Amino acid sequence: MFTILIRYCFRVLLVGLYLTLTGLNVMAQQEHLYQFDLDIGYRWSAYFRGSQDLYRTQLDLGEGPKLFSANLLYAPPEGETGLFDRAQVKLDGWGGEPHNAGSLQLGRDGAYDFRFYYRNFHYFSSIPYFANPLFGAGNLQSQHRFDTSLRTTGFEMAILPGHRFSPFIAYHRSSQEGTRGTTLTADGDDFVMDSQLDIQSDDLSGGIQMLISRLSLRLEQGIRWYHDETSFFSGASPGNSDRIFFGRPIFLDQYAGQNNVDATIPYTNATVVFQVHDTLTLRGTASYSIADMRAQLFEVYSGNFFRLPPTSAFYGAADNQLRGDAKRPNLRLEFSGEWRPVRWFRLLERFYTHRFHTSGSIFNRLTLLNVDPLLDPLIGDRIDEAVVEQNFLGIDFDRQEFIGEVYLHPRFSIRAGHRLDRRELELDRALAWDRNVLLLGGTYSISARNRVSVEYEMGRTDRALFRLDPVDFDRLRIRGKFTPFETLELSGSIALFDHQNDIVAIDLDSENRGYSLQFTYTPLSRVSLTGEYARTRHAADILYVVPQDFSIDRFAYRERGDYGSLFISLVLLRNSQLNFGYSVWGNIGSFPVNYHQPYGRLEVPFEERVAGYIQWNYYDYNEKFLFLPQDYRSHLVIFGLRLGFGNM
User: Fold this and answer.
1) Residue 5, pLDDT above cutoff 50
2) Alpha-carbon distance 207 to 164, whole Å?
3) Cα 495 to Cα 457: distance, rounded to the nearest angstrom
4) Cα-Cα-Cα-Cα dihedral sign, residues 165, 166, 167, 172
5) How many angstroms separate the Cα of 384 from the Cα of each of 26, 320, 362, 378, 388?
6) pLDDT tens digits, residue range 544-572?
7) Which of 56, 248, 305, 609 is most buried when burial is the number of CB atoms within 10 A of its CB?
8) What average pLDDT does the segment 59-88 reach?
9) How far apart are CA 24 and CA 646, in angstroms?
């Protein structure tokens, strides 16, 4: 049956290919201009071992016939009038690939540009050890997993492109469906549950692009309609903890919930570029939206749960209803200017601000049933709680930066500047945070193909709003590119980043180091080599609160990684090409990992426009845990065909 299916798929591809080539031949005879490129093949997976979930999370490349890419460019004969004077159709990743896309572009010079697109992104994530308290006991079922598809379609159309006034319109629709696993936190324990995603979003926008002398202005007005109708469910579960509360276990019998969120979000975008003078250019962007959101959550569950003090009671079932409304204005502004009064001096100024506020009200009604109190006998068999809250959250961020650059020589320049970051957080009280950053740098161009640049930043502040905020930091980046001789090109970089947060109860200290070197060597016209080596080192220490007893402990993370790759390309007889290589990544420390990926590809041209190829990839991934190692190994082989026809 499998062999028959393979033969049928290839017959369909061959028939479609024949019809396409026949049509292209007819167009060529009628002096139509076209270019057609096609890459098709069949992928096999062999000798797979290890975790299928981990493999799908990272790669998710499957077997079967594939259309890796197809591209058709077409133009009617010169002088022919019609609806369009150019057209393009593109397809990528069809045949069960995790990501596939297609697009159609039509246009007529000076009249319109039209583009229709489709994209499908299949997202799978199921890492057994992630946030899984039962992993050490041998349970490899991830408690937080995704198996969803995000599909987007839409079109964009510009009228009179290139003219002084060019209106445009666009429509975009996205939908996300699939299953997601997560956890339910009930009184006394956490329980695994599933959800069925059902999310849609529609965007409709329009505007105008204006080109007036030295001024370029783009204005856009749009609106988004968002709807989320996700359902949650779970069967009987003993939970993640085996703790006994006053001689009784905590467990879940059944859970069902429904989430309903609707939002209407009008938005406005503007972009302007103004060439005030040959020496002065101003740029600005502005974006404003205000979301009007309405949310509802209904959930019922039963089992045995323990209500913490002051109630101190067991209960067997709950009914929870939550309704909320929120307004979320969101404003982003960015202005920049570049002034170069003389050839040897340049001044850059940039200001950015982001205002994000949320104000809303929540009504929450919780009903507990089958209540069994421990301390207060006056508590009845049922408890009703109703909470009405009004909340406000404001997050404001401002950044002001200026840099002066002096060209001491046409090949040598130095830079110096200052950046001020200011962040304000308003919840139950207002908090403010300022950081000053010194900016230094320089660039030396030895020649057109040899240069080195250095950048240094030093940031200082006396407080933090969040635990991972860098209070004091130093960052150094060095990058270089050298060509000792014509056949060898070298490039490399050094990146150092240190930051500290010595605030009491945080005491964060972190170091990052990164070094890399790449080369390209072409000793002969038919031989080329490329290689890379990179080393990274990361160390971090931070205090944290132990949730079991609320004591203070220190978390230390250490990581040292090495990456290397070498690839060789050989041009053989009759322009056949052989590519092969090997890449490896090893990491030791708190998260030890080994990853190996050898690769080989042979492409043989049958004639000028047709070539066949075979490609082999091997993936060997192994997280070096002392218990229950997470790994996978797989061989992937592709037999493919590449075609290219055209007269453009």
Assistant:
1) no
2) 14
3) 12
4) negative
5) 78, 10, 17, 14, 14
6) 877 656 678 888 999 999 999 999 999 99
7) 305
8) 90
9) 8
